[in-house]
Amino acid sequence: MSINYSERIPNNVDLANDRTLQRALEHWQPKFLDWWREMGPSDFASADVYLRTAVGVDAQGWASYGAVKMPDYRWGIFLADRAPDRTMGFGDHFGEPVWQQVPGELRSQFRRIIVTQGDTEPASVEQQHRLGLTCPSLYDLRNLFQVNVEEGRHLWAMVYLLHAHFGRDGREEAEELLSRHSGDVDKPRILGTFNEPISDWLSFFMFTYFTDRDGKFQLKSLAESGFDPLARTCRFMLTEEAHHMFVGETGVGRVVKRSLETMKEIGSDDPQAIRNHGAIDLPTIQRYMNFWFTSSLDLFGSEVSSNAASSFASGIKGRPDETQYQDHICNDATFTLETPQGQKAVSMRNAMNEVMRQSYIKDCELGVRRWNMQIQRAGHEFRLALPSPHFRRSIGAWAGLPTDPQGKPIGREEYDRRTPEWIPSESDRAFVHSLMKRVIEPGKMAGWIAPPDRGINNLAVDYEYVRLN
Ligand code: BYC
């Protein structure tokens, strides 16, 4: 069904014919807008931003581009088209028709997962609340805002499911999604990473590379869900998510490139000399990577999880790209886990979080390889590397166990002493913050980041992507 933009809430779910749902969502809408005005990129409410807006849900040509003031962005409800005769792709109900309504016995599990997914979306907007004030270019500012409005839309996506399928409980949860806040001591966001501050652009690029990629994997696994409205919602969200990871990968790549250019200009790879020339040295980039990668690994949950097993068994949450596997039931299969006590065979269903985490790590490697190619081509020995998945974990079997970045167990004292070598220290953060000065002349870049190879939607890099008014 095509998207109807003539209504107060744009949608392709025929909202006009469900007055109760429409009223409930129209009741929530002003609360969302209040939240956006307070917790979103509020300093830029009057700016004209070159944004893409969804106009359809098919893979080709779904977006239109144009100047929009963010508070006027048309947040709405867009589900991928229904696949006729879709059947359950995994678990105990394999091969049965998918559900259009939530089965009563799975209600609380579905609600918990939808709320957890929904919670991350506004959280990320809150984390990035003030980043616009220190943008390295108008191109980057526009990308930040594109990411922000789409995370806002992803919140709408989950709120729609809560309102449409979970009655009063769902409406209450939708309100709660606006009342928890990132980093709030009393009412924090649900998952750890979403309470970490993102107060500099290197963190933003790491977050969009590593944490949005968790989003990709979680959404892919929910796109397999037996609850068809959830699957269709997530399928469309994934098309938007791709740009966020592009922002991360190219963002980090451009910081690496500028670092390499500086090394060439000054004929030195001494970190302090590079910093003195206003670029970010590669070891600092590595430490930022260590921080955001390890935090994002925790987002997959424990290696052995009865929640994950029951989600898989009952058809709530599959594995990303479930069709790549032979066995979709996994009743008898086992998985060999690395634990601090050695290898351990566990039931495959219980290990689903780890299965996903391992695919995620492989996907993370691809970008690292591309960044390293740049470093190699510039003739340097230094290589960026993902730390061991056992390093600096807070969730699961390795939580709280001191290891070095290679995963070798070490004593607590050594871990505490050497932590500043491995994740950004106070002085690293102070240095990176000192570079965060806003650049708003079209086409100009801050000195610590190289320009992008191309602009947005075939426009030039020096296009005025944001008119600040
Ligand atoms: N921090 O059995 P366990 C995105 C909790 S990102 C704090 O180990 P389970 C985005 C867990 O909630 C994708 N708590 O794990 C990216 C549970 O608590 P309760 C977000 C954590 O349940 C960038 C307890 O520990 N989507 O979209 O199998 C920008 C035991 O759980 C953490 C989803 O996460 C943590 N890191 O799996 C914008 C998908 N990890 O319930 C957006 C929905 C675990 O006992 N969520 N816990 O109180 C899920 O599928 C699951 O909830 C999880 C955890 C994968 C997160």
Number of helices: 12
Work out the radius of gyration. 22 Å
Bound ions, cofactors and other small molecules, one mention each = benzoyl coenzyme A
| Oligomeric status | single chain
Major beta sheet summary: 3 strands, antiparallel
Number of distinct beta strands: 5
Poorly predicted spans: none
Q: Order of strands side by side in the largest beta sheet? A: 2-1-5
Describe the model.
With 469 residues, this protein is mainly alpha-helical. The protein has helices at residues 19-39, 107-127, 138-165, 167-179, 201-222, 228-266, 271-276, 282-298, 306-314, 352-377, 412-422, 426-435, and strands at residues 48-54, 63-69, 334-339, 342-347, 466-467. The mean pLDDT is 96. 48% of the residues lie in helices and 6% in strands. It has a 3-stranded antiparallel β-sheet with strand order 2-1-5. Strands 3-4 form a two-stranded antiparallel sheet. The protein contains 12 helices and 5 strands. The structure holds benzoyl coenzyme A.
